[in-house]
Amino acid sequence: MLETLPQVPEDSILGLAAACRADPNPNKVDLTLGVYMNEEGVCPVFDAVRLAQRALVDEEKTKVYMPPAGDPVFNQGMQRLVLGEDSAALADGRVSSIQTPGGCGALRIGAEIINAAAPGARVWVSDPTWPVHIPLLGSVGLKFETYRYYEPVSHGVNFDAMVDDLKRAGRGDVVLLHGCCHNPCGADLTLEQWGTIADMAAQQGFLPFVDIAYQGLGDGLEEDAAGLRLLVQRLPEVIIAASCSKNMGLYRERTGATIFASANPASALALRSQAQVAARRIYSMPPAHGALLAARVLADDELNANWQDELQAMCRRINGLRTSLVSKLEQFTDRDFSFIEREKGMFSFLGLSPEQALALREEHSVYMLDSSRINVAGVNGANIEYLAAAVGAVLSSH
Ligand code: LMR
Fold first, then answer.
1. pLDDT given at position 308
2. Annotated catalytic, 211?
3. The pTM is what?
């Protein structure tokens, strides 16, 4: 029976990361996977996480299952982190959440809830969006429409086109939004534009589903969540998929949360019960380690301050790299790359063709996605010149 299954192509992101790992060229540059890397090219463990881990290992008494909704301290901490300490929705008790295996688990649980409420609902996704959104949500049975978002000529958001397309989204539809640091393009909505989306959702009745996987890596923890907080403030229902992969460096610990801001406390409880049932039929209960670390970091004042300092330093470094990259690329090319500085988070599209991205890989061992999405955090003092020179060489020869 199983022999009928063919081999499938590698994942468009993970496959390239693996190809880069296997490349013996000592000058190779890995700009593929969206993970933070420091000046040494290492994805570091946060100090606060390391301290929390030491304490956890010493104090841990059991490995018994987690409760189905996960760790309550983690859930409370995540709700406050994402919605803000002074969130009226939190004070009104109309928020609930469930701990999930990473941001992917959070998206999947959100999709399960949407499909339970409106089987086969249409989800409007930005063009482009993170490629994994489609199989993650689609395998539940949801359908897709796209709204125009990124405009390659201006390298910014074509907000008029986005609004035009979303005029067709109505009650029973879902609009998937990137909370900050848009993956893959790095072009974000302004707060005023978030306000327009909130007005449209209120008038037209669509449900916003916000994927916030990069909170703290754009402008800061509070600033990056401002758009989604505005939605929660103005609308009765918003679903949020949050992740601790990037902003706490807990990638492999699979730590995330689905947060439901709902019409009233009874609905919040109902949604959490539905989410628990959905989790039970997929993975039963979430893994413990990452969430217990995050819970400590969020709940302990000292660890929290320590974590926020380190996160801010990462954010500053990424923004500094954006500036350096623009000036380096200007030295080696005659193109205007100044848009890189206007974008947020880990990603930018360099605006190269798939053939040029391929030539960079094959001729220079510079790895970026075929779409020319780069992980800005993969740039460092040791590779920036090589990278800019390779881009310059490929632009003039291909
Ligand atoms: C990315 O887009 O590179 C990250 O979100 C990692 C992943 O799982 O794709």
1. 98
2. yes
3. 0.97
Percent of the chain clearing pLDDT 90 (strictly above):
99
Closest CA to 94 of 255, 264, 251: 264
Nearest CA to 294 out of 313, 277, 311, 272 is that of: 311
Helices and strands (DSSP H and E) totals, the chain: 15, 13
Q: What percent of the chain has pLDDT over 70?
A: 100
**Model pLDDT, residue 57:** 96
Q: What H or E segment, with its residue span, contains residue 18?
A: helix 14-22
What average pLDDT is seen over the chain? 97
Q: Which amino acid is located at 73 in the chain?
A: V
Overall average pLDDT of the 52-76 stretch: 97
**Mean local confidence (pLDDT), 120-149:** 97
* Three-point CA angle 379, 384, 390, nearest 5°: 110
Residue 70, phi-psi category: left (phi > 0), alpha (psi -120 to 50), beta (remainder): left
Q: Which two tokens mark 385?
A: 């010149």
Cα–Cα separations (whole angstroms), residue 346 to 11, 132, 185, 340, 376: 20, 17, 9, 11, 5
Burial class (CB in 10 A: 0-12, 13-18, 19+), 334: exposed
Cα distances (Å, whole numbers) of residue 185 to 192, 344, 345: 20, 9, 9
Q: Does the annotation mark 124 as catalytic? A: no
DSSP string, 311-340: HHHHHHHHHHHHHHHHHHHHHH-SS--THH
For ligand 1, atom 6, name the residue with the nearest CA: 34
Domains of the chain: 2-44+317-397 (3.90.1150.10), 65-299 (3.40.640.10)
Which residues form the pocket of ligand 1, taking CB atoms under 6 Å from any ligand atom?
Answer: 13, 33-34, 130, 132, 183
Q: Supply the residue whose CA is at minimum distance from atom 1 of ligand 1.
A: 34
CB 249 within 8 A of CB 49: yes
